[in-house]
Specification:
single chain
Length: 349
């Protein structure tokens, strides 16, 4: 992970905005610190991996329940119909707004916790017990929360994790109970969508089609196409760390994307952002880092680590995950956490 930080430092040397560049270097220090701390704490991480993830999952479940309680409080206060919960007023960003937290990054936390709970409830050494039923109950809460948050990129990563876990279970690694557990959660999610699905169909399908449309002036694909022009103008080295936002906004304005310009939107794509900051070399380093992570996760046969890598990759295609503290800390901590605490299916609680 130090290679990612090295790219940021290298691009700082020729940045035109040294103040923003140094601030970015400071913000990205977790890329160096968390791997070092996880290496030092490796015996503790290996011994308490399950309990640490249990505590993290319990925290996220509590946050999801709080957000639902807050939504019900608002609905009751304004005497709105209960079906308003499934409208645009209480989903995605508006659902997570009481925490001032982006819905995609809360979905990342919830998605990782969902994978952990299903993994624990269906691991080969797990028998029928109250703890396993609690795991499944917590997983159900997270599924409902993820539906309410409606993050398309995280759901794509979760689907990929389910497919990978199902394929490995066929070859006997996790047996077939993980397939049964994942199928149960998928059935619940699909049933819920079919029950109250008008908005969610619009959000998950309609908005996705809108994002990849070239006819919609404010679609993400159109914005990506606009910022590729300045990227091609400086393809090898980019513009330097911390110096790309004015370039991005100028590209939006010159292409008539005034909403994106007035809202000061970033590239919403980590690969394009790194291309603008550090050139093709920066994109190559980030891509190689992701590829190495996938290789290590597959080698360890760790479905949760693989799910983490899939979600990080999908979010990187839709957000600047390294430019936001919520995404940066998630990536910086959990990657070395999985590396230094390999999955053991027969590990005692």
């Amino acid at each position: 992970m130090a290679s990612l930080y090295a790219v940021t430092l290298l691009a700082t040397t020729y940045s035109s905005d040294k103040g923003a560049a140094f601030m970015t270097c400071f913000q990205q220090l977790p890329l160096l610190l968390f791997p070092l701390l996880c290496a030092i704490w490796q015996p503790l991480l290996q011994r308490y991996r399950i309990r640490l993830l249990d505590v993290f999952s319990l925290t996220v479940i509590g946050v999801i329940l709080y957000l639902f309680a807050d939504a019900f409080r608002v609905i009751h206060y304004f005497q709105l119909p209960w079906k308003t919960l499934f409208s645009d007023d209480f989903t995605n960003q508006r659902f997570s707004s009481p925490l001032d937290l982006h819905a995609t990054y809360l979905s990342l936390y919830a998605g990782l916790c969902l994978g952990h709970l299903v993994q624990q409830a269906t691991r080969p050494s797990a028998g029928a017990s109250t703890r396993n039923w609690l795991y499944l109950a917590g997983a159900l809460i997270l599924v409902i929360g993820l539906i309410q948050l409606s993050s398309k990129s995280v759901w794509m990563g979760l689907i990929g994790m389910g497919i990978w876990a199902s394929l490995t279970s066929i070859y006997g690694r996790y047996k077939r109970r993980i397939v049964i557990g994942a199928s149960f959660l998928a059935f619940v999610a699909v049933g819920f969508l079919m029950w109250k699905g008008t908005f969610f169909q619009h959000r998950m399908i309609g908005d996705f089609q809108k994002d990849i449309s070239l006819t919609n002036r404010e679609s993400r694909l159109v914005r990506w196409k606009a910022v590729l022009d300045p990227a091609m103008a400086h393809p090898w080295w980019g513009y330097g760390t911390g110096a790309i936002q004015p370039v991005v906004e100028a590209a939006y304005f010159s292409h008539g994307l005034y909403e994106a310009y007035l809202l000061h939107l970033n590239t919403h794509n980590q690969f394009i952002s790194w291309w603008l900051s550090a050139g093709i070399g920066g994109v190559l380093v980030y891509t190689l880092w992701l590829s190495w992570g996938f290789y290590q996760a597959a080698r360890a046969r760790d479905a949760l680590w693989m799910g983490f890598m899939l979600m990080v990759t999908c979010v990187s295609l839709a957000e600047n995950i390294l430019d936001v503290q919520h995404g940066l800390f998630f990536l910086s901590f959990f990657f070395p956490f999985f590396y230094f605490s390999p999955w053991k299916s027969n590990q005692p609680y």
